[in-house]
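Supplementary notes for students who missed Thursday's class. We covered one full example, reproduced here. Read the sequence, then the structure, then the short commentary at the end.
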Amino acid sequence: MLENVGVATPTGSRPALIDLVVDASGDSYLASLAELRGLSRVRWNLVGSEAGQVRLADLGVVRYDELSGELHVTVRSELLQPQVVGMGSIQTVIPDSAPASAAFIDYDLQTQILNNRTQCGLLLNGVEYIGLNRIELSGSTGDSQGTRLYQAHLVRESLEDSSLLEAGSVVGMAGARGNPAAMVGIGMRRDQSVTPGFITGPQLRVNGVSSGQSTVDVLIDNQRVSSAQVSAGSFSVVAQPIAEAGVAQVVVRDELGQQQVVSAQLFSNPMLLEVGQSEYGAWVGGLNTENLKSQGSAAIGYYRRGLTRWLTAETSYEGSLATEVAPAISRLAFSADVATMAGDLSVDVRGLGGAGQVSMTYSAVHRVGAWTVNAGGQATHSDAGYYNVGGGLVQRYNYSGTLGASAYGGSSYVTMAQSPAGKLKQVGGSYRLDAIGATLSLSVSRFESGTQKSNSAFLGLSIPFGGGVSGNFTTRSSSDGIVKRVAINGAIDRNVYGGLSTEGVHGFDRTQADLTATMGPTRLLANVAQVNGQPLAAQAFLRGSVVLHRGGVAFVPTQYSDGGFALVDLGAPGVVVRNSFGANATTDAAGYAVVPMPSLRSVQLRIDPDTAPDGLDLSPVPAVAYRKGAFEFRRRAVHGQFVQVAGHTTGTLVVDGVEYPVTDRGAWVELASGHYVGQAGGVSVDFTAF
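Structure (token representation):
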């Protein structure tokens, strides 16, 4: 790839063909740069010649020697030093393609034997994409305590405006006394955080300036979350959404191997919305408890809006005519997030039905030598005598705090907390025994509830036996007695995983066997448990997903069925498709592939050019049907190579006898398939300037 190349056009009329070499008295960066690019020979066709000095646009000072016919270049080394000029944030990414039409079907067959009674249930979930609309229909049937249950749920979601309409059993309500209840009715919402292409959670944007082709890596706590290739000049790289506190590192590395590292503390709160962005929802219908008894009409609504980069306001309402099930609760909440070098502080202020509540959350991560120190805490102060939205009684003052440190394969922590159940104080830690590859964990805690006090100690040991088999031994001693648990887990083969565990306390012994088997697109989960030698319960789940599309049926690999995935139509079999997280999939005989897509992440699809057949036209964005989560798909050429020739307005780039017109300064030129600058043996590149 040619970059930072300018044209030398001395005055005169005698043409000369000269070689581009590096002045021995100057820096040798140009020779190294050409060697790394695999260029065995770079030639300039100059119109006329004249001894003297001229300046190339991006390289340095050029001296033309008329006697030897050589062009000597002294390179300004500072041009090759990449610089990171700042870090910022971005919160909205919009896709540039529409999803293809496809239908997803999930199935879940459940069978349970409990106390000699058999219960069965079937759940089907279908999703169809029509243009920018997602239509989802789910239904289930089952047997619960002698009552047959039939449920249906219809959803229509627009990917264009993030709106969603739904009908059926749409909302679960806890109720004032903690009794489970469900609303059967219709509702709508606008929730951009789960809409493809829209990411309202915080992201990391790195802005910088580089003198040449460079690689920009973004790491959070030494875990790479983004990697991008940037060209000469200003650049801006957006990393994955971040929802944690940690140390961010930006590594910029040029083609010579020179690199610059910038580190900074990073804190973010995923609950905040972008300034001016809003989310809202409302549901109306009938309220039913778990025994299907009608409790009258009910309504729920909420509205959230981002006021500033660190402040989001929210108001909501929950109410029912059946006040003994769910009394009317109105809420006004403000969430603030202040990121400082000392940590991340979030403040949440709420007013509920005349009562007030203030919550504060703090988190921080710092490095001190070889140690990583993390601290976190949460405190809530509220008026007593009311129930929160979750249905539980809120104590007047609750708090929790944790201080931890880790280094050299070990970690420790101290926790103090107060909740409606009581007060807890705990000290613990874990250490890796490298000699045997085991991990040892231990903790000591004290719990106080009213006048009752209890102390307990915990000891755990995890040992890998090899061959995918591991064992776990834990014991906990407290005033209630000693609890022992031994478990062995391992892979029977690549598709079957099983485990056996036993635990006992006060003469009460329980043994359980678990089995997970993968059979093509279907996964079987089963377990059998017994107490004191008597059969207690058995369960079996048969789960899987398939995709119906224009080319037929694509089976979803079971390892992806629990997460997000996308259907990609490439029109050719055997093509390897990779996402930006390293996972890959191969297209089937019809040219379709199911690619894993982590939810709430910006994902870029890449095609392996070694597996793409010649003549495969992938200039448009591949047809993609979104599964769930927020994804971004960017255009990328499959084969060929882009060459940028800077410093020209018009000209012709010649590669292996093929001419490519250059019509604009700094334009990118795509080479034909099979022509690569930098392949083994080198490719002679000539440029004729007008």
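Commentary. The longest strand covers residues 534-549. Residues 22 and 629 are 52 Å apart (CA to CA). If anything here is unclear, bring it to office hours.
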